[in-house]
Each structure stands twice: as structure tokens, then as C-alpha cells.
Amino acid sequence: MDVLNYTEFRKNLAKNLDKVNDDAEIVIVSRSKGKNVVVMDLNEYNSIAETLHLVKSEANRVRLQSAIDEMNNGIHYTHDLIEE
Questions:
Q1: pLDDT, tens digit, for every residue of 2-39?
Q2: Handedness of CA 66, 72, 76, 78 (dihedral sign)
Q3: In a 10 Å sphere around its CB, with 0-12 CB exposed, 13-18 middle and 19+ buried, how is residue 75 labelled?
Q4: Rounded distance between C-alpha atoms, residue 16 and residue 9, angstroms
Q5: Considering the chain, what percentage of its residues have pLDDT values greater than 70?
Q6: What letter would DSSP give residue 2?
Q7: Which fold has domain 2-40?
Q8: Taking CA 48 as the corner, what is the angle to CA 3 and CA 16, rounded to the nearest 5 degrees?
């Protein structure tokens, strides 16, 4: 994670945005006369948003943890594909 001041970030805007996209790097832009901001790749943001949605409810968290535990313990089922 990089922390850049606003002037540095703006001066090398294209390079900094490419780094965010290409390296999945998160950049914090510090501003002297405003609140700091985070710049991140859209795919990374969407992934975080999806994870937050999935673990929002206790029932979902329990079900997901159960599935992970089953997978880690080698419990899995194989099904044939249904062809029409």
C-alpha cells in the first residue's frame, strides 16, 4: 500500500492508476486541506463488496464456514452433469 500526497499522485496520475490496476495496489492519497482518499482497482472493490455482502448475516457466515470446514476435511460430493 502506497501513501502519496495529492500533488505526487496527480503529477504521475497515469502511472499511479496503472499501478493500482496492474498490481492490485491500493493507494492512499493524503490531502492537506481535506480528508484522505483510497484509490483501488474496481475488481478489487467489487470483490470486497461481495465478501461483505456474503458475511453480512450470521446464517450466511455459519453456512460458509461449514462449507469451508467440509472442504478442508475432504468432504465433498461429485455429481454428473445433467445433459438435455
A1: 999 999 999 999 999 999 999 989 999 999 888 999 99
A2: positive
A3: exposed
A4: 7
A5: 100
A6: E
A7: YefM-like fold (3.40.1620)
A8: 30
> What is the reported pLDDT for 34?
87
Look up residue 54 and give its three cell numbers: 456474503
pTM over 0.70: no
- Cα–Cα distance, 68 to 75 (Å, whole number): 10
Sole residue written with cell 455459519 = 62
CA distance linking residue 34 with residue 7, whole number of Å: 13
CA distance 63 to 76: 15
Between CA 12 and CA 55 the distance in angstroms is: 37
Query: CB–CB of 4/30 below 8 Å?
Result: yes
Q: In sequence order, what DSSP letters do the residues of 27-56 get, joined into one string? A: EEEE-TTS--EEE--HHHHHHHHHHHHHTS
Confidence of residue 77 (pLDDT cuts 50, 70, 90): confident
